[in-house]
Backbone:
């Protein structure tokens, strides 16, 4: 769920779309952080006074958000983050947004409350399909059953919001292989980790050549190094 939120928020940021969320642990934090990492603007709507930070470990994140967007609240200064504050706060998240995306949600969750407010406010509601046996996917799947827009790639949001992909041409330059070795490596990588020694074996190239090529792909954000000297494809490549 955090990976999906980060991919979506990053794409929005690269296309000059502001990301609005609630500063909570998990999905919210991933969305805020991805927007910031991609040079975008993000807004956190909090359920306590503007002088408070909840959860407390997100204080530095809140400061970064304030510098690159805003941290807003309709509660008086000094108000603690009481449980009853969170559901009403969600109407502001949906009200500030052209569209609301539910990445994961249990059958009883704040994300579904936000989606309900969004529908009442005439906003688009998107939901990411999930495993029908996964508790945290039940809410999103129910939204899809009830008519939410299926979200299987970030471009879906941009299309529905009529936002042209301002980052498209730059992305093509980044994602297209720059050499035959890069192209061969990218074809053998997937979104599941592949060990370095397996890549060397498949390609039949010296280890130092494979390492150097992977380093360049990592700099361009096409691959990620995981534990155990394995590599994972982080985004599609060769998009025309």
Residues:
């Amino acid at each position: 769920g955090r990976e999906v939120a980060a991919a979506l928020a990053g794409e929005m940021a690269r296309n000059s779309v502001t990301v609005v969320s609630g500063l909570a642990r998990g999905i919210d934090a991933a969305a805020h952080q991805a927007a910031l990492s991609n040079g975008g603007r993000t807004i956190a709507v909090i359920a306590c006074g503007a002088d408070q930070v909840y959860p407390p470990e997100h204080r530095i994140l809140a400061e970064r958000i304030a510098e690159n967007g805003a941290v807003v609240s309709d509660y008086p200064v000094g108000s603690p983050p009481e449980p009853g504050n969170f559901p009403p706060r969600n109407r502001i998240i949906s009200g500030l947004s052209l569209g609301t995306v539910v990445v994961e949600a249990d059958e009883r969750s704040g994300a579904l409350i936000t989606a309900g407010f969004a529908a009442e406010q005439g906003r688009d509601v998107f939901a990411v399909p999930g495993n029908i046996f996964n508790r945290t996917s039940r809410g999103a799947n129910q939204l899809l059953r009830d008519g939410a827009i299926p979200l299987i790639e970030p471009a879906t949001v941009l299309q529905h919001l009529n936002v042209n992909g301002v980052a498209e041409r730059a992305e093509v330059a980044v994602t297209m292989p720059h050499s035959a070795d890069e192209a061969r490596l990218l074809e053998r990588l997937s979104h599941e980790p592949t060990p370095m020694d397996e890549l060397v074996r498949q390609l039949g190239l010296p280890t130092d050549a494979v390492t150097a090529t992977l380093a360049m792909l990592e700099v361009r954000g096409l691959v990620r190094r995981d534990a155990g000297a394995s590599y994972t494809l982080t985004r599609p490549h060769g998009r025309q």
Observations:
- The mean pLDDT is 89.
